[in-house]
Amino acid sequence: NYVRILRIQNEGTKDVPGSGPAGDSKMPIPDLDPAKDYRLVFMGHGTDLEGRLYELPDVTTPIAVVKGNTAGDAIILNSGRCGLLGFGSSTSFGVDVTFDNYYAAVDCPSTLYADNFNDGNDTTPPPAWTHYDPIGGLTAPPATYTFPDGNSYRIIAPQAQAPDAGPARAASTRPDLNFTDFFLSVDVLAWDNTTRQAFGVLARAGDIGLGTTTGYLFSYELGSGTLPDTTGGGTDISYITSEAANGVTYPAGQNRSVHFVPGNKYRLTFAGLGTAFTGRVYDITDSMNPTLLLTTLGTDDKYAAGKVGLLAASQGNLSAHGDATFDNFYADIAEPTLSFDGSSGTAVISWPGNLTCIWVLESSATVGSGAVWTEVPTTTGGINSKVVYDPATHLNTYTAATPMDSTGNTYYRLRKL
């Protein structure tokens, strides 16, 4: 058994150069169970091709990935029809296969998972963000959703004004994104530093409504001292039940204190893998040199899947409100980040193999202006000088062909196609 990318010509087939053991796009896989259901995903961008196999109901972690690149082929097919096909391995065999849930698009779905708000709205591209304003118009004025300078996203939750209304709160969620494992990232550009509030990113949100919302929240909360806040602040990973937030289980002695300085810019990232959660805070005031300020870890098993979004809420009293300005929202199944291992003397670079789109590894001898980035080969050389997917770790891995001390500096980056 294997998964394989083939080029069809005059009804014949030809192997495409790829990440398989023989240098083609033929990847051996374990025997499949006819009693189970599987999903095939096929993506192409230019000459880069990628095929994935999932065992349902898990649609986040492939059991096999095969990569191909037709750049060196004598014939390159640039466009054409798409569809479904079954064929026998010889004239002795017929075909019997049942398909379901066919989907096709010009680009991978993750193009819908990013929004920089540079269009000055939260309605395009569709579907529009869904506003969550449970007490607006009831015990508080309606929440507002605006776009400062036409390129960012400000959420204001006015004062609650009634003791039994709970805190002022407003959120915006993506109706199209329902994640189990997830990675979320958003930039925080500004916030009201004179009100007792918290703001952050929502994940696995469900039953969204007054008194019913569930999910997880990674948030920054202003310090508890005198306002405006000059020294305090910290992060929380919370589980939400019936709109009430409670802390998840944290490692003993974990520090969650960090201070946001008005005028600086920060990035919040929130990742969930099963019952384990990781929240990080970066100072991105110098966008070329982001600084990791804090990592927060937590565990909880209450919610397995749900929507994602952004939230601002008051903390502690009726005179407070929520007011935060966000930018560059991004969501995917995993974090598009590189890991490096040089313990063998040779560079070994790895990254998640279940990212929604095709991501390619590129290398350069320099960084910054004038750097020339070249895609690392998917298809050429031996098994240790191309990109391969390991189903045990769910990682794509590239092992450089030469030891690190035999060449000058080499820099690596990921790029989404």
What does this molecule look like?
This protein is an all-beta fold and about 425 residues long. It is about 0% helix and about 40% strand. It has no helices and 29 strands. It has strands at about 1-5, 5-10, 10-15, 25-30, 40-45, 50-55, 65-70, 115, 130, 145, 155, 170-175, 180-190, 195-205, 215-220, 235-240, 245, 265-275, 275-285, 290-300, 305-315, 320-330, 340, 350, 360-365, 375, 385-390, 395-400, 410-415. The strands form seven sheets. Strands 8, 10, 11, 13, 18, 19, 20 and 22 form an eight-stranded antiparallel sheet that branches. Strand 18 (about 265-275) and strand 19 form a beta hairpin. About 35% of the residues are buried.
Q: What is the oligomeric state here? A: single chain
Largest sheet: 8 strands, antiparallel
Q: Count the helices. How many?
A: 0
Range of helix content:
under 10%
Secondary-structure-based class equals mainly beta
Secondary structure topology:
Blueprint lengths: L1 E3 L1 E4 L2 E4 L10 E3 L9 E8 L2 E8 L8 E6 L44 E2 L14 E3 L11 E3 L6 E5 L11 E5 L8 E10 L5 E10 L7 E8 L12 E8 L2 E4 L18 E8 L2 E8 L7 E9 L7 E8 L7 E11 L6 E3 L6 E5 L6 E6 L9 E2 L11 E4 L4 E5 L11 E6 L1
Antiparallel strand pairs: 1-4, 2-3, 5-6, 6-7, 8-22, 9-12, 10-11, 11-22, 12-21, 13-18, 13-22, 14-15, 14-21, 15-16, 16-17, 18-19, 19-20, 23-24, 24-28, 25-26, 25-29, 27-28
